[in-house]
Amino acid sequence: MVKAIVGANWGDEGKGKITDMCAGESDIVVRFQGGSNAGHTIINEHGKFALHLLPSGIFHENTLNIIGNGVALNIEYLLKEVDALKDAGIKFQLLISERAQVLLKHHVLLDEYEEERLAERKFGSTKSGIAPFYADKYSKTGIQVWELYHEDRLKEKLKGIYEKINIQFKYLYNKPEIDYIEVYDNLVKYAALIKGYVTDTGKILRNAIKENKNILLEGQLGSLKDTDHGIYPYVTSSSTLAGYAAVGAGIPPHSIKDVMVITKAYSSAVGAGPFVSELFGEEADELRKRGGDAGEFGATTGRPRRVGYFDAVATRYGCEIQGATEVVMTCLDVLSYMDKLYICTGYDINGEIVKDFPTTELLYKAKPVYTVLDGWKSDITGIDSYSNLPDKAKEYVDFIEKEINVKISMVSNGPKREEILKR
Ligand code: GDP
After folding, report:
1. Minimal CA–CA distance to 310: which of 366, 235, 371?
2. Separation of 14 CA from ligand 1 center, angstroms?
3. 40 is catalytic
């Protein structure tokens, strides 16, 4: 059975915890898009880890972890994460697609220089090089992992790549040029270090599907950050949708049977862009504080998260474009302090109430229309069965389920693996 775990919103929905939880029952966990520009926070018996590139199944000794062809592979980052696991004495299984593309030093620099050039108009990039990386990939000037093992070819290709990059660096950004030989030497060194992990992972996955293995496809960020369907241009540069998981892993689209979409019980987002139900000032500070790790800072960027009330318009859309077969709601515990719970059930755009998620400029004009429910006002951490939740908490979940039109199969009431309530 192939299951995708993806985000309904702007990322940071708590996918890491759910993936970690499901990974124990999975034979294989696959990352299929993105790079080290976002991260999962995972808390387990080994401690607390922020994973950026490694799949969340990495803590389960019997689970094979695959970095698929759709991923932006920053080898330096990967080796750091691998070393951290080795240092913690964790045994793991890892494979890297020979068709994954390698993120190079100039991608990170381009990201940085471009944000600097744009100044006030910047996108709020994580400066991980992701946008320039995918630009190169689709311009066919990127490097796939297999190319690292054909050294003469690699050197020639890098020479060509940096001819153009250096013109840009020198004349557009007024920055030092890059010596392609230095890049080449580094890549050859890295290539040797990852060689044992590199293989045709698509073939392995397709065979595993034939053998009815349990495969988990692990998404990064969420629907609203998808390049095509998100809040363009405040999106990421790869597709965050379950539909892309087939491409980014190298498996048939019809093999994905379960699309588990994760949403938080409230909204949070990192980076620029429209955010209709956003809170500001003291209300926002309080929610961020109550969120603890979940609320305050992005796992990768350390940037404070923007927070707001649950947005049913955005989430329904997010679930639709993912093709959600079930939804998991995380962080319900965070709302326990609220007297009243606001749920954004419509957007008022120039006096018209809209229920369908619009394009970016209209989102900026949208004012939230709220339905208000009573809060449950009691700590729900430690409750170990859904039926024992306060009625008002269940009403909140029921209401949202109706709004988003997808079954909420589980509710999470704390960051730990066991803090999950099946409905
Ligand atoms: P991801 O990118 O979707 O994996 O999300 P992150 O891991 O970046 O952010 C989710 C944060 O929420 C992490 O700090 C988790 O430990 C935390 N978290 C997940 N589920 C819950 C929950 O039910 N309650 C609380 N309080 N925190 C949670």
Report:
1. 371
2. 4
3. yes
Distance, CA of 23 to CA of 65 (rounded, Å): 10
| Dist. CA 166 → ligand 1 center (Å) | 41
Distances (CA, A) of 296 to 269, 304, 342: 10, 5, 20
What's the confidence (pLDDT) of residue 193? 97
From CA 270, how far away is CA 10, in angstroms rounded? 7
Residue 90: which residues within 8 A CB-CB, separation 6 or more? Answer: 46, 58, 59
- Kindly give the parts of the chain with pLDDT less than 70: 124, 293-303
Cα separation, 406 vs 325, in Å, equals 7
Domains of the chain, with CATH numbers? 2-85+202-422 (3.90.170.10), 101-196 (1.10.300.10)
- C-alpha dist (Å) from residue 107 to 104, 126, 352: 6, 12, 43
**Residue among 351, 375, 350 nearest 361 (CA):** 350
Separation of alpha carbons 416 and 294, rounded Å? 12
Task: Record the pTM.
Answer: 0.94
Task: From the candidates 20, 27, 40, 333, give the one annotated as an active-site residue.
Answer: 40
The CA R_g of the chain, rounded to the nearest whole Å, is 22
Q: For this structure, is 285 an active site residue?
A: no
- Neighbouring residues of 165: CB distance < 8 A, sequence distance ≥ 6: 106, 110, 178
Strand 215-222 and strand 2-7: pairing?
parallel
What's the full length of the chain, in residues?
423
The answer to whether the beta carbons of residues 269 and 11 sit under 8 Å apart is: yes
Give the span between the Cα atoms of 238 and 70, in whole angstroms: 8
At 301 the pLDDT is 57
Q: How far is CA 217 from CA 69, 92, 124, 214, 321, in A?
A: 13, 18, 27, 10, 16
Identify the burial level of 296 via C-beta atoms within 10 angstroms of its C-beta, where 0-12 means exposed, 13-18 middle and 19 or more buried: middle
Copy the structure tokens of residue 159.
């020479």
Which residues, in sequence order, are CB contacts of 295 under 8 Å at separation 6+? 268, 287, 288, 289, 305, 307, 334
For a mutational test of ligand 1's pocket, the pick from 330, 337, 411, 413, i.e. the residue with the most ligand atoms closer than 8 A to its C-beta, is 330
Helix axes 75-87, 180-194, angle to 10 degrees: 40
Residue 416's nearest CA partner among 30, 6, 41 is 41
